[in-house]
């Protein structure tokens, strides 16, 4: 068991103007071990990765690679020394094929100049087979879904025969099913004696895949422990510095006598077919399914962002033909989209401007903005929702993921929406903020609202939803009431279509 | 402690107003080193020279803020000038004021129609703005040639000079017109919900759409505004020159884009505004004027203008 660490951090300090991001961090990463870094957003996990891979330079302290001092100054150096990083944001190129992405920058060539395509395709196929995923190496990235893209990225990292693979929240866009495939890859890496650094907010996964766990809080290393010796609750306690009394919040105010949204036989060819469901007043309806099951597409269609081929929707008993989201928003619906950075927020604009955007017209006098309302209302909601921001004038780009998401929610609360469609509302958000969002959802439905929540995290759906609709390959495979809800039931409806 | 705070505030102020300082420094340098620059008459001259570009750049600001571009403005200005000149020649009616008003109206409507076509192609048919307005640039210019048989329309009644040459009291009408348009544009962009929606569309079209903003209407409208203001600019130009020519206003689209970009409005939309455009307009106006007074040839002026635009935008990048 006397292994030498591949990468070792010794007394690393890093400071950004005004913030101590890392203080006295010492960690050793061993070959054949999956080392989990856990902490809330802003705890310093990403900074550690960036220091190892050469994106940042430590202010004090040293990085050692195989016992040698290795304070890299750019990513190329770390790559040459066998360290590859899979970033949270996808970095595959949409307009290239799978194999072109895998071999990007280190293409196989004939005679030193001409690309050897057939060889690369063959190699890529071999890689797919060993990893156990079925993606055609010749398909274009733009035709893949997010989960598949992530798998390509992982394949690329694996193909570099790295001695260390760093994964920064690799599962945030994967469905539970794809996570299983990823874990197979990780297990294989472990057998091959590769050191893996794994960052995730999903505690269950950590228990399943991790060997060693390091918890960080506000740039300070709290503890490094074997994963076998720890429970989920202990992890949370270490992360937030106290025992969290309640994590999920569940409301019980669903009124089955009052249907607020009634969707029947909604069909869009190639996306989903014959989708019917009802949403009750005061209900949180969870939508479960694998990635690519058509959940987002159905909800975007209900919201008017896409057009259905057939079927009808009724809001508050009123039939509507939505051509644009505007028509649906007027009727009191708000959408919190899957990708808050690209679809939910104007990142370059202030918290105030984002929060007021949906209601600014309604609240204006003869077209003139009511600046007083805008300021007071956004201030009120910053306080009410405990959005952490220096002021209502802060640019939303500078906020953490959880606080950004709260701003998106605030936008619809200011617009006085009655129904919220939330697509993966807690993706990439830390434990504390997640819990706060569940609490917000609860108080929203208790005040007469209704929520549709798409989520790929089963524990979240079970913890929050009153009723669960499961989809598979564009069709509804079943409804599960909260009292019958169990992970196995939902998983089998989602993956095979029956219980 | 409060010293530090004021310093930070001061720093931010400088950071957010690079162009203002650039303008002030330019102004002071010109006062010191350019003969005859500082006279009241010359300052008025700068304002008159800037006024036509101001009208066009004003519309361009709307378009660029919405993440678009309008290359047709110069051609639309020429078309409008030609139409205006021809109309007044045909109908030199007794009631001068009325006919002039009518002509302005007709020209502006023609500009609006050009903008409408641009807007339709861009928002409904999804033609990229660069291509749609490039097409309109050719169509409008071509129509101006066709309408005049490529001959300048001159011998116009003196009343046509009202918007380009006449003064109200001590102030030329064109300057008054510029100020009115700029003020209205400023109010629309920064004080109305419609203005806010333009910024939202320019920042992120998808977010705007999912927030219930009619992206199509916004896009449509900015090209109409741009078309109408270009037509107004073209009319002032024709009035000033006392003729309508199909070759007029060549390259005006680039002057307008330069003024907008120089002021610091983001070329990818969502950031900037009329104040910035005003800075850009006057930086360009003062440089042109100073170089003329210094006796620099107009060819070299063009070279200098190119370099200065580049420097201004590079400065803006560093600021970010």
TrEMBL record, chain A:
Pfam families the UniProt entry points to: ABC_tran
UniProt keyword annotations, A-Z: ATP-binding, Cell membrane, Membrane, Nucleotide-binding, Repeat, Sugar transport, Translocase, Transport
One annotated GO molecular function: ATP binding
Domain ABC transporter: 7-243, 251-498
InterPro entries, sorted: AAA+_ATPase (IPR003593), ABC_carbohydrate_import_ATPase (IPR050107), ABC_transporter-like_ATP-bd (IPR003439), ABC_transporter-like_CS (IPR017871)
Protein name as annotated: Sugar ABC transporter ATP-binding protein
Organism field: Faecalicatena faecalis
């Amino acid at each position: 068991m006397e292994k030498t660490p591949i990468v070792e951090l010794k007394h690393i300090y890093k400071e950004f103007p005004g913030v101590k991001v890392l203080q006295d961090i010492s960690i050793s990463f061993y070959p054949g071990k999956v080392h989990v870094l856990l902490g809330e957003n802003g705890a310093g996990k990403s900074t550690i990765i960036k220091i190892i891979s050469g994106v940042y330079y430590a202010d004090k302290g040293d990085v050692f690679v195989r016992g040698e001092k290795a304070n890299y100054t750019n990513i190329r150096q770390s790559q040459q020394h066998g360290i590859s990083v899979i970033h949270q944001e996808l970095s595959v190129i949409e307009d290239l094929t799978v194999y072109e992405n895998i071999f990007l920058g280190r293409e196989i060539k004939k005679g030193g100049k001409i690309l050897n395509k057939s060889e690369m395709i063959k190699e890529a196929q071999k890689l797919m087979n060993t990893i156990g995923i079925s993606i055609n190496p010749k398909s274009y990235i733009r035709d893949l879904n997010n989960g598949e893209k992530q798998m390509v990225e992982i394949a690329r990292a694996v193909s570099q025969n790295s001695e260390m693979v760093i994964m920064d929240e690799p599962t945030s866009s994967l469905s539970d099913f794809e996570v299983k495939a990823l874990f197979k890859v990780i297990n294989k890496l472990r057998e091959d004696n590769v050191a893996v650094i794994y960052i995730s907010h999903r505690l269950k996964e950590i228990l399943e895949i991790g060997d060693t766990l390091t918890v960080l809080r506000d740039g300070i290393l709290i503890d490094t422990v074997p994963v076998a010796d720890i429970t989920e609750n202990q992890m949370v306690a270490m992360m937030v510095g106290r025992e969290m009394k309640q994590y999920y919040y569940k409301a019980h105010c669903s009124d089955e006598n009052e249907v607020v949204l009634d969707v029947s036989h909604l069909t869009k060819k190639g996306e989903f077919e014959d989708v019917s469901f009802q949403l009750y007043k005061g209900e949180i309806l969870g939508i479960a399914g694998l990635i690519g099951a058509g959940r987002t597409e159905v909800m975007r269609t209900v919201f008017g962002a896409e057009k259905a081929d057939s079927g009808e929707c009724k809001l508050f008993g009123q039939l509507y033909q939505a051509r644009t989201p505007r028509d649906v928003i007027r009727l009191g619906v708000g959408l919190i989209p899957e990708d808050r950075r690209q679809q939910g927020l104007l990142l370059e604009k202030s918290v105030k401007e984002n929060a007021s955007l949906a209601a600014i017209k309604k609240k204006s006098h003869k077209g003139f903005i009511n600046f007083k309302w805008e300021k007071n209302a956004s201030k009120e909601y910053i306080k009410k929702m405990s959005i952490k921001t220096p002021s209502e004038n802060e640019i939303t780009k500078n906020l953490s993921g959880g606080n950004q998401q709260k701003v998106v929610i605030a936008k619809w609360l200011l617009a006085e929406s009655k129904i919220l469609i939330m697509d993966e509302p807690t993706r990439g958000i830390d434990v504390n903020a997640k819990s706060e969002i569940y609490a917000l959802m609860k108080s929203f439905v208790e005040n007469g609202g209704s929520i549709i929540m798409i989520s790929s995290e089963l524990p979240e759906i079970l913890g929050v939803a009153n009723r669960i609709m499961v989809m598979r390959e564009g069709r509804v495979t079943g409804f599960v009431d909260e009292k019958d809800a169990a992970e196995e039931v939902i998983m089998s409806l989602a993956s095979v279509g029956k219980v | 402690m409060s010293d530090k705070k004021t310093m930070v505030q001061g720093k931010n102020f400088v950071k957010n107003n690079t162009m203002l300082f650039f303008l002030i420094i330019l102004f002071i340098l010109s006062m010191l080193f350019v003969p005859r620059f500082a006279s009241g008459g010359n300052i008025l001259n700068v304002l008159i020279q800037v006024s036509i570009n101001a009208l066009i750049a004003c519309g361009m600001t709307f378009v660029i803020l919405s993440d678009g571009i309008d290359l047709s403005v110069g051609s639309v200005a020429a078309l409008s000038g030609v139409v205006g000149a021809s109309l007044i020649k045909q109908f030199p009616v007794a009631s001068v004021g009325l006919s002039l008003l009518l002509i302005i109206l007709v020209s502006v409507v023609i500009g609006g129609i050009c903008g409408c076509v641009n807007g339709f192609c861009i928002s409904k048919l999804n033609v990229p703005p660069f291509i749609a307005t490039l097409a309109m640039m050719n169509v409008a210019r071509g129509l101006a040639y066709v309408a005049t048989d490529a001959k300048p329309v001159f011998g116009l009644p003196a009343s046509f000079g009202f918007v380009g040459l006449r003064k109200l009291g001590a102030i030329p009408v064109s300057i008054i017109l510029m100020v009115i348009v700029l003020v209205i544009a400023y109010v629309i962009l920064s004080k109305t919900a419609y203005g806010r929606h333009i910024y939202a569309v320019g920042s992120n079209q998808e977010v705007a759409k999912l927030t219930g903003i009619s992206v199509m209407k916004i896009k449509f409208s900015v090209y109409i505004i741009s078309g109408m203001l270009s037509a107004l600019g073209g009319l002032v130009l024709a009035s000033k020159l006392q003729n309508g020519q199909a070759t007029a206003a060549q390259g005006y689209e680039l002057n307008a884009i330069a003024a907008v970009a120089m002021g610091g409005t983001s070329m990818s939309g969502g950031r900037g505004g009329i104040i910035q455009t005003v800075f850009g307009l006057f930086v360009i106006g003062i440089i042109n004027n100073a170089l003329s007074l210094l006796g620099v040839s107009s060819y070299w002026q063009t070279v200098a203008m190119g370099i200065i635009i580049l420097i201004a935008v590079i400065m803006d990048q560093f600021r970010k």
